[in-house]
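Archive transcription. Copying these from loose printouts into the bound notebook so they stop getting lost. Printout 1 of 2:
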Amino acid sequence: MKRLLSLALAAAMTLALIPAAHAASGVTTGSGVASGGKLVYVDMAGRTGDVVIGTDGLHTDTAASSMVTGSVAAVNGGFFNSYYSGAGNVFPSNCAEVYGALVRDGQVLHAGDANNVIGFTYDGKVAIDRVTIQTTAVISGKGTATVWGVNKLYNDSTGIMLMTDDLKLAYTVPASSKVFTIKDDKVVSVNGGGTYTTPAGCSVLIYNSGAVANVSQWNSLPAVGDTIRFAYNYTGTRTADQAMWDNMKTIVTGGRMLVQSKQNVTANSSYNSQYDSDPKQSNTSSSLRSFAAVMGDGRLLLGTASGTFPQIANDLIALGAVHAISLDGGASSMLYADGSGFLTPAGRELAVVLTIVPQDPNEKPYENPESGGSGSNAIDPGVADPHTPSSWAAADVEKARSLGLIPSWLTYGYKGPITRAEFAATVLQLFPACLGKSADTIRDEMGIYGDEFASYKFTDYDNYNVQLAAALGIVTGYEDGTFRPNNSITREQAAIMIQRAVKLLGTVTPTKNPTFTDAAKVSPWAAEGVQFVTSCGIMNGSNNAFNPQGTYTREQTYITMLNVYNAIKGS
C-alpha cells in the first residue's frame, strides 16, 4: 500500500513538473518549484527582453497591467524602495526609488558598479552573471571621464553623474558643482548647482566640485559646443560569455544569485555577500520570490514561488536550470503570460518590469564611441581618432589586449590619465592572465567571505573591483576611509599597487639597481614599491627621474601590465 501511495505521489509530482500547454507559440506554463511555484517557459527564438519603467519615468511606479502590454511573458524586475522618504533625499519623498543597474537599448538607464544581473542580447540570447557596468563620457578633444552613476546622485566631491530624460523627477545639485546640459551630443549650456529637471531630449552631466578641480588641471572641463558621447561597457565573470555582454540590449539587476553552471551558489559570497546582512534576503528567510533562469535546452524560465533561496535553487537545478537569479519578491512578485494573464498578480504597483517581446528586425545595436562606424554615437568621420595608442606604444598595447590584460571597457582614451579606480580594475586582470584563475578565486582561497569582504568597502565608492582589490591588499585608500576613485593615479601609487599584486602572483627577481635624482620626493609609504618596480624593470623613469607624483596614462599602464606579465612568466 505504501509503495502504491509513493508511486502515485511520484507520478503526481512528475505531472506537476511538466509544463502545461499555452496558447502563445513557444510559451508554456508549469510548476514544480518550492511551495505554490508558478512557471513560464519561453522559447526565445525571435524574441528578446525589454525593461519597462513607471509611466511617469524612472523612480515612479505603475499598475502592472499597463506594463505588460505587447509582451508574451513578464516578471517583476529589480528592487525598488516604495517607502522612499526622509530629510536630505535627492528625489521627492514617496517616489519608487529604483535600486541596481538597468540597461535599455544598450544604454545604462540607472546606476552602475557590479551587480547580479540578467541580460538579453539584441538577438535574444540570455545571460545571468555578476557583471561590472561602466559608463564613460567621451569628450571630444578632452579625454574621458568615468561616470559614477546614471540617474543616481552621489554626494562625494569627486563624483561625476549622468542624468537622462528617463528621470522626470527634480533633483538638487550642490552649488559648487558644474552642470552640463547635452542635446544631440553637444553641450548647450554650463551652469552651477541648483534644482534641475532634465529637459526632454537632453541629458545632464554633473561634475561635483572635486571632479571640477581634477579635470581643470588638464584643461579638460567640458564647454559649450563640445561633443560628449557615452560608452557603456558590461563585463561578466565568464570570459566565454563576453561576446554576449558586448551585444547587450537589456539588463536588469536581480538579487541573490541562485544557480551558476548548474551549481547552487546561494551561499557563495562572491555573488551574494551584500545580501547576507538583510534578514529578508538571507538564505534562511522563506517568502514569496520571483526568479529567472536559463535552462539547459536554451529556453528562458520565469517564475514565482514561496520558499528559501536554497530550496528554490535546488528545485530549479532539478528542472534543468544552468544559471538562475532571484528578483524582487514579496508584494512585488508578479508573473504574466500572454493568453493566461497574471499567474501571480502583483500586490502593489511596480517600478520595473522585465518583459519578453518580439525582436525588432530594424533595431540596430547601440554603438559605443570607440567603435567608430556611422552610428549616432560613433566618432565623427574625418577626425583623428583620439582613442588610438601612440605609435611607440601601439604594439605593446595590442599585445597586452590580446593577453587579456586590459579591461574590455578601457580600450580607448589611451593617451589620457588613468584614474585610481580604473588602475585597480586593470591590476585585477593580471590574475587570470598570469595564473589562469580570477582575482575572485584568489580571494576565496584566502578565505575572505561575507562580513569580512563587506568590510573592505570605501565610504565614497561602492564598486566591486575596488572592493576586491582592497580585500586582496592591493589598495588601501586614504586615512579618512575614502578611495577617491576619479583622482588620476600617481606613479608612486601605481608602483605600490603593482608591488602588492606581484606578491600574490609569484616571484620576480630584481635585476637592476637604478637611482633617481628625485628619489627624495618619493613618499615614505611608496619607497619600497618604487624600488621594487624599477629594479625589476616593470616601471622606469625618464631623464634619471622617476616623477613619483606625476600621473600615469592608460597606455603606460597597459605596457606596465605587460611588463608584469613577462616578469611573472619569465619571458
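Printout 2 of 2:
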Amino acid sequence: MPRLAALGLLKPEDRDALVAYCTAVASLRSAQECINEEGVLIETERGARKLNPAFTVLTQSQNTIRAFAHEFGLTPASESNVAGKAEGKDEEYNPFA
C-alpha cells in the first residue's frame, strides 16, 4: 500500500476498507495454514470425510481480497485505472470531463 499512499490515492475514509482487506489476508493465511496441517478433507466423529471448514474461510477470504484488490488497483486489470487517476490528480477539476 505504500505505492498507493505515495500516489495520494489512500484517503482517511479508505481506512476501513484497507482494514477489511488486511483482515481478509490474515484470514486467508490462517485458513491455509489449517488446511496445510489438517488437509482439505477432514474426518468427522463418525468416520466420514467432509470438507474442512477452513476451506470455506479460504474461499471467502480469496473473494474478499479479490474485490478489495480491484478497488485499490492491486490487480493487473485495475492497476491502469489507478495509475490514470494519479496522473490526472494535478489537473484542474473539470465538472464536465
